[in-house]
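Q: Please design a sequence for this.
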């Protein structure tokens, strides 16, 4: 388990391909975006068998099962200012969370996650991440999973 952004990139990239594979098994055409922009607004594009295109951002939280908190970044410090980041600037249709110690991936529409944040459904916020520059909302692990949908082929066909 690492708390280093760069050390976690390979694990996060693997999760992106794992999520893409699940969508492929459900009949979607998938494109995992290249790593040229580490802060792109989404990671995967999926095209439904009937034609609609959706975007997915994959988040991997290695320590949530231990802390019982899911960390959701929404702001960061940059040049002595606090600016929007993480889900606050995402334009993905869906966010998929991966908890490596759990067999499922959890999907939540971005507007639903933003609503949880704006309605303060989190336990508390704190600064964390590399160099403590990320402002994180910490949601109860079990509550968060209930707000999401564990993805499988039947669930994916409805999006």
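A: Design:
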């Amino acid at each position: 388990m690492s708390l280093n952004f760069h050390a976690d990139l390979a694990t996060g990239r693997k999760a992106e391909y794992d999520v893409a594979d699940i969508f492929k098994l459900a009949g979607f055409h998938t494109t995992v975006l290249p790593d040229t922009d580490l802060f792109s607004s989404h990671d995967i594009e999926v095209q439904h068998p009937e034609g609609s295109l959706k975007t997915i951002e994959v988040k991997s939280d290695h320590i949530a099962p231990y802390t019982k908190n899911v960390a959701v970044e929404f702001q960061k410090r940059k040049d002595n200012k606090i600016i929007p980041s993480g889900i606050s600037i995402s334009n993905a249709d869906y966010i998929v969370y991966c908890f490596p110690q759990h067999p499922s991936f959890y999907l939540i529409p971005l507007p639903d996650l933003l609503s949880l944040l704006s309605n303060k459904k989190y336990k508390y916020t704190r600064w964390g991440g590399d160099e403590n520059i990320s402002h994180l909302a910490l949601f109860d692990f079990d509550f968060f999973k209930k707000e999401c949908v564990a993805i499988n082929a039947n669930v994916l066909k409805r999006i």
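Q: Thanks. Anything notable?
A: DSSP finds five helices and ten strands in the chain. The domain at 5-156 is CATH 3.40.1350.10 (Trna Endonuclease; Chain: A, domain 1).
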